[in-house]
Amino acid sequence: MKTIRWGIIGCGDVCEIKSGPGFYKADHSSLVAVMRRNGALAEDFARRHGVPRWHDDAEAIITASDIDVVYVATPPVSHKEYALRCARAGKPVYVEKPMAMTAGECAEMLAAAHAHQVPLWVGYYRRALPRFVKLKALLDDGAIGHVRAVTVTQRTPLIVPEGGALPWRIDPAVNGGGLFFDLGCHTLDILDFLLGPIAEAKGFAANLGRAYAAEDTVVAALRFACGVHGTASWNFAAADDFEMNEIAGAHGRLQFSTYTPSPIRLLRGDKVEEFAVGDPPHVHQPLIQTIVDEMNGKGRCPSTGESAARTARVMDALVAEFKAGRAS
Hints:
A hairpin with a 7-residue loop joins strand 12 and strand 13. This protein is of the alpha/beta class. The radius of gyration is 20 Å and the shape is globular. It has 2 domains: 143 residues, Rossmann fold (3-Layer(aba) Sandwich), CATH 3.40.50; 150 residues, Dihydrodipicolinate Reductase, domain 2. The protein starts with a strand and ends with a helix.
């Protein structure tokens, strides 16, 4: 198999541990160049990670003849721009999540990828993490029988900005929304992976903490194409941290965390069985490996532009009324 050569646009915090090392540690994969608008920071990253070269211009990554795939690790506001430029250059692209600012932007990115016949993958890396692969196997093997219901709960304390610019994760002009867009998207995507597409989503969003303009509360009713119904609640203005997902079936329940590698709990009657499956040091690496393998004609990456666009459509539906009110 050939070595797949990567270039990174935006070698910031997410690249330090979560993703960056995965590109040079995956089998048949190498990281040959990185880019950041601040050249000194790009140079520093390249030096510390043993990357052969660095740039302060994205075009140098996109047009390089020795780069096979581009990883876009910038905030969502620039995902569409870089994905379109990569498509026009005939370059496969791996975009961070959320895929873009809106579902409409996702559609534009998909159209460009199809028109130029280049692959488009998105960084919903949980689809390849061992604990979620185990969870899917339990569901597919009938551990809880036919699925009947899904419940999602997440709450975190309010972030109160202290002067200066907003952190980009709670700035709708950069992230498309607030922490629901940054964090909630992971849960919606993994439910799509486990149970299939969400066919319909209805809900409400609000800003209850009044610390910033983006939504900090979202509640949802979900109907999956498979017929399962679910409810979800995200509150980022609470007093404590709590997060749990539960999938209930005809013969039992599965409880798991989206974010923390705590044991999966299988509850059947009065019996509780736990499956402790830890995360790897570089959580993107298993998904990166699937891209490398697909580029070599072996298997398929489970996180595509198509699957990520479905999650974007669900998020847009849940915050549409809130955004319309904020704009009026």
